[in-house]
Structures are given as C-alpha cells and as structure tokens.
Amino acid sequence: MIQQRANFDWMLKELSDGVPGIQQIVVLSADGLRIARYGGEPDAADRLAAACAGLQSLAGAVAGEIPRSDGRMRMVIIEIDGGYFYLMSAGPNAYLAVLADQTAEPGLMSNRMRDLVVRIGAHLTSPPRRNGQTV
C-alpha cells in the first residue's frame, strides 16, 4: 500500500540535502502516477512521472536483451545539457527519479539513491492497477 505522501517528505528532503545540485525528486508508480515529490512544481513532477513510466519500460526491454539478465531495470542515468536525470527501481511497481544540475556528482547520487531505496524500499510499493483501479 502507498504511504501518505506527507510521510515521504522528510525522506526525500534528506536525499536532497545530502547531494548538492538536486532540483527535483519524484517517487512514482510503474504506470507513471506521482506518489510523492520534493522540489520543483507539482505539474512538472506529474510530467516527469509520466515520462518515467515509458523510460522504465524501454529500459526493461533493453535489459531483456542482455544475456543472463532478469530483464528488470535497476537504474538509468541520462546526462543532459545542464545536468543529469536518474531513475532507479525502488520497490515493486515503484521508482525513484531525480533531476539534478551539473554540480551533482553521479557516483554520490547513485549511492545516496540506493541507500534511500534500501532503507525505505518496502514503503515505496505501489500495487498494480487495471483501468485506474488497484488490483
């Protein structure tokens, strides 16, 4: 079950405070619905969550082409002009996405995201939905 969004605030703030350059953090379901956010505007977080759903699906398809892979996406990092985008699997049907400027150090970001997911991954679970309803 998804925890109340407010319960994620302090956890996401801790990640933001621990890594310089973070602009926005979004926790999302596999089908692209925003569960929680820190930083940025709500509409931008919703757009990012929707885009991440497609990206995680694409990454999973690519992972399936790697011999001996289980076909699951663990992390995607995209370097863009002005910064980075990170997407990490965070629990069953849940993901953690971060937008950061160019001052963010990718190794530190990856480690801190992984630490957060390990600590709270069980709480970052979104039940599957069918036709907009929880299954």
Automatic annotation (TrEMBL):
InterPro entries: Mycobact_SerProt_Inhib_Rv3364c, Roadblock/LAMTOR2_dom
Ranges for domain Roadblock/LAMTOR2: 9-100
PANTHER family membership: SERINE PROTEASE INHIBITOR RV3364C (PTHR36222:SF1)
Name of the protein in question: Roadblock/LC7 domain-containing protein
Naturally occurring in which organism (per UniProt): Streptomyces triticiradicis
